[in-house]
Structure formats: structure tokens, C-alpha cells
Amino acid sequence: MASEVLYRYVVDTPLGPMTLLVSPRGARWVRYGDVPGPAGAEDSETRTAALARQLREYFAGKRRHFDVALDPRGTPFQQKVWRALCEIPYGSTASYKQVARKVGKPLACRAVGGANRRNPLAIVVPCHRVIGADGALVGYSGTTGLPKKAFLLSLEHGKNA
Fold first, then answer.
1. By residue range, what is the domain housing residue 106?
2. Is the pTM of this model over 0.85?
3. Which residue of 20, 66, 70, 75 shows the fewest CB atoms closer than 10 Å?
4. Which residue is catalytic, options 10, 52, 68, 127?
């Protein structure tokens, strides 16, 4: 079996560089920082152009929903949680408990947190919209953590324009 071709590109954002990895089926991951891709990944601005454009539009306040194809890798439960995260509307938040209920596992708050932590598509799959039951900003695992989450939520409320 031939190895899959993956395409990597680094886009500048208000939160610093973000590395995009795209497969022929869609976005595989979006990570904070200038992260090396897997062995054999090709640098390609062209193959990652739609995702890079949509991220730039999001940060410019012109995009509320990403419509690029997604190709994240994860367990069936993680995939279910990530789909549920995509249903949290722009500018809104949900608690871990609400997401657990949404995926049919109302007692699985910690497992939802684990799936959130393993979300490979930062911002595109909006794990930053998940907050604590008391409304507190908790559990964002980006390089600088909670300040990034606060920035993204403020952006979605029009406070960073």
C-alpha cells in the first residue's frame, strides 16, 4: 500500500503561526506554532489554500463557519465529540456536560474533556467554545492555553476587531 501524500503549510495568525496539514480527503490537523509535518509531508501553499483562506477570514471576523472537508484521525467517540463541537454556534459556548449529553453519554464529561484535548483541528473544530459548568474558561491546551481561548471567544463576540 502506497503511503498517503500530506500537505503542510504555516499560516500567520494573531495568535502566532499555525501549521496546517491537509490530506487528499481534507484537513487533518491545525496546530499552534510552526510544527514539522510527518515524514514525507510536502510543503504546499496551493494544496492548503482553502483552509488557510478560511482561517484568515475567521481571524478577520468575516467567517463564522468552516466549510472545508475534514479528515481528522481519532476514535469513534472522539469523532462523535468533534462533530458535536462543530454544532456549537459561533459566539456561543457549551459546557462539557452539555456536549456529553449531545453525544448520548451524559456522565462522560471527563471523556468529552479528553476528546476536546485531543482535537487535532484547533479553531476549525471549535473546542475553544467548551467551558466549565460554572461558565469558567477551563481546559484549553494550546501552547499558551487559556489566553488563546479567551482571545478566540472575544473575537467571536466582536471584541478583538
1. 76-156
2. yes
3. 75
4. 127
